[in-house]
Specification:
Blueprint: H1 10-47, H2 68-83, E1 99-102, H3 108-124, E2 128-130, H4 146-149, H5 152-158, E3 165-166, E4 179-181, H6 189-203, E5 205-208, H7 222-235, H8 240-254, E6 260-263, H9 268-274, H10 282-294, H11 305-310, H12 318-328, E7 336-338, H13 346-356, E8 360-361, H14 363-366, H15 369-372, H16 379-392, E9 395-398, H17 403-414, H18 425-436, H19 442-452
Parallel strand pairs: 1-2, 1-5, 2-3, 4-5, 6-7, 6-9, 7-8
Helix pairs in contact: 3-7, 8-16, 9-10, 12-13, 12-19, 16-17, 18-19
Pathway: Glycan metabolism
GO molecular function, one term: glycosyltransferase activity
InterPro entries: FucosylTrfase_pln, GDP-Fuc_O-FucTrfase
Length: about 500
């Protein structure tokens, strides 16, 4: 007679039953959370509120290390959210006053800011905007089109409730020669309303041949300022291939903990056109001068290099930057990503920096030749990779105050006031000269450098306004304070502004 299998004791049965109920309850909670999160994202999209971002671990630059597995899990979750199908806003219907063609000039970040301004102008004047043309004639001679750098469909769809954007002019205008003009720099919205709108209505198609700094930093209606931010931080998304490589580099850098980005703008074009030759040999100075004279569009030819340096108008040399990093207290093992093109003078000029901070990396060290090959000879696309790493870094330190330095600083403010050290180059070169002349000890030099920058680390503040001197006041995209803090929670529509 077969023995009956003994049944579990009652306590064990209760425990098993409780575990099963617990598992079911856990699964229900997870499913409910997923549904709620999905509905919340759709609600945020429908209302025009920027989607809440997943928490990205951002460790202290000089402190502890975080789990690479956790960082990669967060990155994977962010990528999944990025791939979610977007919910489109209802298209804004309006009678268009004409078509706006835009020819951007300059490097990536100068063009990026210009695109934000031109979208804002097109929205304010009720125009139809054609996808911008990028600069192919400048020093970099990059043949990239808008769609090689930015996600065109996302750009059009994310702004459909504000302004109509088309990929090309309609056939009926294809043979029409547009009115070509350069808007006045630093203009208010009233200039565009009174001077530009009548021209568009008359000619139907207008081309802006220069777009850098054509909209004022200050004095614009709040809703226009917020639209500039929305274009910059939401509508202008890089192509999937650029985003993927940028995210990969950030993930690789995060595996060993925190990292800083040094935007070392010590490149041939910067030195030639600025006339900054401090630390260069006589042969190098002659080469840079010849290059400046070879470009007829560059108006300033005779430049006093030392005078500019003492006025704080030159990028710090790699050697000067090394002294500053040490004085600020960055340890020798700090992981430093160099965001720049080819450094003038090559490895020889970087020797001192590499000796003091040997843990230096560049994109060529993080990506394979096959991964980088499609981006080579496309300086704007390479700059986009540097942009993504710079925005994600724990600390961002630019050696000059060019367009990338300013636009990245503003983006880091927008994403949570992440630390950007704004070097005071005018006072720094004075301190460096005193130290090198042995008039300051290392301790005195280090204390002075730290004290000089205590209030220059992207703390919340308002832009400095200088009436009548827009070039001297704070740049909108370096500190878009109208869009920060509580103001950044919701983009207000411009429906009531009609022309």
């Amino acid at each position: 007679m077969a023995k009956r299998k003994a049944s579990p004791p009652a306590a064990v049965r209760r425990r098993l039953g409780g575990a099963g109920a617990s598992a079911v309850g856990w699964a229900l909670r997870v499913a409910t959370s997923i549904v709620a999160w999905t509905l919340l994202l759709h609600l945020f999209t429908f209302l025009g509120i920027p989607r809440p971002t997943l928490p990205v671990t951002r460790p202290s630059c000089l402190g502890g290390r975080n789990s690479s597995a956790a960082a990669e899990a967060v990155a994977a979750a962010g990528e999944a959210a990025h791939l979610a199908p977007p919910t489109l806003h209802p298209r804004r219907l309006y009678k268009s006053n004409g078509y706006l063609l835009v020819s951007c000039n300059g490097g990536l970040n100068q063009m990026r800011a210009a695109i934000c301004d031109m979208v804002t102008v097109a929205r304010y004047l009720n125009l139809t905007m054609v996808i911008p043309e990028l600069d192919k004639q400048s020093f970099w001679a990059d043949p990239s089109d808008f769609g090689d750098i930015f996600d065109v469909n996302h750009f059009i769809d994310s702004l459909r409730d504000e302004v109509k954007i088309v990929k090309e002019l309609p056939q009926k205008f294809s043979e029409k020669v547009p009115l070509s003009m350069q808007p006045i720099s630093w203009s208010s919205e009233k200039y565009y309303l009174r001077q530009i709108l009548p021209l568009v209505r008359k000619h139907k198609v207008v081309r802006f041949s220069k777009t850098d700094s054509r909209l004022a930093n200050n004095g614009l209606p709040l809703k226009l300022q917020k639209l500039r931010c929305y274009v910059n931080y939401n509508a202008l998304r890089f192509t999937p291939s650029i985003e993927a490589l940028g995210n990969k580099m950030v993930s690789v850098l995060r595996r060993t903990g925190s990292f800083i980005v040094l935007h070392l703008r010590y490149e041939m074009d910067m030195l030639a056109f600025s006339g900054c030759t401090h630390g260069c040999s006589d042969e190098e100075t002659e080469e840079l001068t010849r290059m400046r004279y070879a470009y007829p569009w560059w108006k300033e030819k005779e430049i006093d290099s030392e005078k500019k340096r003492l006025e704080g108008m030159c990028p710090l040399t790699p050697g000067e930057t090394t002294l500053v990093l040490k004085a600020l207290g960055f340890p020798r093992d700090t992981r430093i990503y160099i965001a720049s093109g080819e450094i003038y003078g090559g490895d020889k000029r970087l020797a001192v920096l590499k000796t003091e901070f040997p843990n230096i990396v560049r994109k060529e060290m993080l990506l394979s030749d096959d991964e980088l090959r499609p981006f080579q000879k496309h300086s704007t696309q390479m700059a986009a990779l540097d942009y993504l790493v710079s925005v994600a870094s724990d600390v961002f330190i630019p050696s000059n105050d060019g367009n990338m330095a300013k636009v990245v600083e503003g983006h880091r403010r927008f994403t949570g006031f992440h630390k950007t050290i704004q070097l005071d180059r005018k006072k720094l070169v004075e301190l460096i000269d005193l130290f090198e002349d042995q008039e300051l000890s290392w301790e005195e030099f280090s204390v002075a450098v730290k004290e000089l920058h205590m209030g220059r680390m992207s703390q919340p503040t308002r832009r400095r306004v200088i009436p009548g001197q827009p070039k001297e006041e704070d740049y909108f995209y370096a500190n878009p304070h109208e869009c920060l803090g509580p103001a950044r929670k919701r983009r207000e529509r411009l429906k009531h502004i009609e022309i």
